[in-house]
Amino acid sequence: MTEVLVLVGIALAAASGFFGLLFRRDSSAGQTLCTSIAVAGALSGLAGVAWFFATGTSRPINVPWSLVEGAAFHVGLDGLSAFFLVPIFLISLLGNVYGLGYWKQSEHPTTGRKLRLFYGLLTAGMALLVVARNSILFLFGWEIMALAAYFLVVTEEEKPAVREAGWIYLVATHAATLCLLGVFGLLRGASGSFTLVALSSGSVSPGVATAIFVLALVGFGLKAGIMPLHVWLPGAHAMAPSHVSAMMSGVLIKMGIYGLVRVTSLLPDPPVAWGGTVLALGVISGVLGVAFAVGQHDLKRLLAYHSIENIGIIVMGLGLALLGRSLGRVDWVVLGLAGSLLHIWNHALFKALLFLSAGSVIHAAGTREIDHLGGLARKMPWTALAFLAGAVAICGLPPLNGFVSELLIYLGLFRTLGFGKEPSLAGAAFAVPALALIGALAVACFVKVFGAVFLGTARSQHADHAHESPRSMLVPMAVLAGCCLAIGLAPQIAAPVLAKGISAWAPNVPSVAQQLSSLAPLNWISIMGVLLIAGLAAGGALLSMRLRRSVVEKGPTWGCGYVAPTPRMQYTSSSFAQMLVLLFGWALRPRTHRPKNLPLFPRQGDFHSEVPDPALDEGLLPAFRFSARLLSWFRVFQQGNLQAYLLYIFIALVALLLWR
Amino acid sequence: MVQVLDPLLIIALALNLVALGVSRIRGVINAVALQGILLGVFPLFMHDEIGARGIALVLVTIALKGFVIPWFLVRAMREADIRHEVTPVIGFVSSVLLGAVGTGLAMAFSSTLPLAGAHADLLLVPASLSTVWTGLLMLITRRKAITQVVGYLVLENGIFLFGLLLLQAMPALVELGVLLDLFTGVFVMGIIIYHINRQFDSISTEHLTELKE
């Protein structure tokens, strides 16, 4: 039943976009039909997952498939698959509904049908790879996902910047697939079949296991956007339409995490170095991701760097769980993986929420430049509220969901200090200050964004003429915000699901659910959250009562008492972030262009600052240019000269003749 | 039989060197035509029972290689107004030297081949290999399209020589097929030469580099 419902969901999602192709470009009936089918598919998928969580039964479907020797259409659900299916179908559902208002067929007649087609295929590909129990089927779903995402990124292909971002993504995703071919090839060599089953201890040599792990880390890390493999991520997220960004950031990059979680669950006896590497990579991604985010001026690019940061947090939890498995510390496994998994859900929820509200801003104001926006809270109160909810959640502040998952990882990391006789790894505790730093920088970053975009006064005509978005866009945002609040206030509802996921990853951990409830103070989180909301409400009521009684004078924000303040006097995103950007200047390498040799009476001048991505601009691109120069030596052989080509044939013939 | 064949083969080898060393295209064509006639006669000496089919093959071969194709080439030269000098990439002396070295290597190489006893003493295999070598050498070192055609002719002569070993085993149909291929090849090349000439006012294949990328 479970599998059937999920497969129906996958099939409907895949088919949804094709119906739109049957309709005329300018008719809106197609988009309604597409969206209804996609919503039905997502609901069917979610029902399947709910059935699995309720009954815990799974009857894998295994149909032989003559594509390749050993391939099979083998699907089944376990705790991990079901866990990852939830964000896939949920975000797909909400994104489809959001698209009705955001990417109306009547406003985008040339791209609308294409966008819906690949949106459905992306959903189907991801759901397929998550339920696949056969590595060929997994790769099948993986490639559908990767290519559909490419076409979604280049939706507005007439813009050169979009095409460039698409190319970089395509190169990165192919590199990832290449690594995965290696992973599954080696796994097949070790297990003897393409079925994804856990290898028994001793069935694989440590060298091969490490090779599988490293390839998986690079391949899945490329997709997940772990620093320094994130090069494709900021561009692709910024250039795609916003509900696509929500899908990519919320769900697609999690497929990399899913792969990493799945492969590490198959490999026996992980050495300490694996967990240590993963934890260190998580710290690097988290800290540098948020540092880069602070320096951005493009709203969606900024959110994209926050995805890298959150992937860092997720990977830290996974690293801790791996360390726990190496050293036999059950509490590290439970807390680390619970935090990691819950953060996957949470990030899917709040990052989708942030991208959708950013899309709402872009839809209304027509620009992604933070420094062209301002004062939108008055014009778009609901969007502002939704963005605020997402911002609070992503900063890991109570009472929203980000706090819960980060707390679980904190608790797990503190346990590495080692009290008593159990094995400990005090080095891992250095991740705790890193996590705290990440949280603090995230707060700074979102204060900057919210202040610059929604508060103050409008900096440009665009922002001045903004208007609130239609209900089809606001409702998905409200649902996401509601989910964030629900998990934040009642994390107990997620606990059994988490327990199922953890037992699927580490089957030999006994009674996970009890361990989790004893290790994590989930009830206290609820109580504190409710108290916090009550306190805030009381404070707010008090303040509004006082304001009503006293005389309030209204003036422009950041007016600073000047006689004739203008919007240009406000803090800009770069001036707000300047100190932090300079603090991380060693990694961010910010570039500023300022007028030189100012005369006594200043002329008109301009100032411009940016934080480009050094991994791409100073790492990969020079490397590619170098290899292109190196390989250009081979162009000598392409003469276009008939005689030269005949000579090659001749040489080959003589060589063959003289061989042996 | 060997007494008759070996001198003929040596003449054919000498004609290879002539084709490499002559500076006028007419001379090259003549040398190759003569080689073609010589090759056409070979089957008569190879086997005792030749039959009507064999005779027909001999006649067709001699007609095509000795007269039709050379006439075709000479006509193409006249029609396309081709200048009479061969324009080699490397000098004539080095061409001849390379051809000689190739012939020597062919001798050395064929002595290592596991040949049937009846053929081991013949010069047929080294002659065939060295003719193939000459053909390839002409293809690689001659610029004009027409000399390339001649190169293919020589190449085919080499293959024909090797085929003589198998005359009993190889059906005449196959040999006719090869001849047809050659004829078509020359025909196509003739058309190409005409078009290269029209396009570039020259028939040097070097101008084809303009078409790369």
Supply the number of helical segments of chain A.
25
Looking at how many chains there are and whether they match, the oligomeric state comes to: heterodimer
Proportion of β residues of chain B? under 5%
Low-confidence stretches of chain A: none
- Rounded to the nearest angstrom, the radius of gyration of chain A is 26 Å
**Distance between the first and last residues' Cα of chain A:** 63 Å
Helical stretch count of chain B?
Answer: 8
Number of β-strand runs of chain A: 4
Largest interface, with counts of residues having CB < 8 Å to the other chain, equals: A-B, 11 and 17 residues
Write the layout of secondary structure elements.
The complex is a heterodimer of chains A (660) and B (213).
Chain A: H1 2-21, H2 29-55, E1 61-64, E2 72-75, H3 79-102, H4 112-131, H5 135-153, H6 160-191, H7 206-224, H8 233-239, H9 242-266, H10 272-294, H11 299-327, H12 330-365, H13 376-379, H14 381-394, H15 401-414, H16 431-454, H17 461-464, H18 471-489, H19 495-505, H20 512-519, H21 522-549, H22 573-583, H23 585-588, E3 591-593, E4 608-610, H24 614-631, H25 642-658
Antiparallel strand pairs in A: 1-2, 3-4
Chain B: H1 2-21, H2 25-46, H3 51-79, H4 92-111, H5 117-120, H6 124-141, H7 145-165, H8 172-200
Helix pairs in contact in B: 1-2, 1-4, 1-6, 2-3, 2-7, 3-7, 3-8, 4-6, 6-7, 7-8
Write out key terms for the chains shown.
heterodimer, A: 660 residues, mainly alpha, two-stranded antiparallel sheet, two-stranded antiparallel ribbon, B: 213 residues, 8 helices, 0% strand
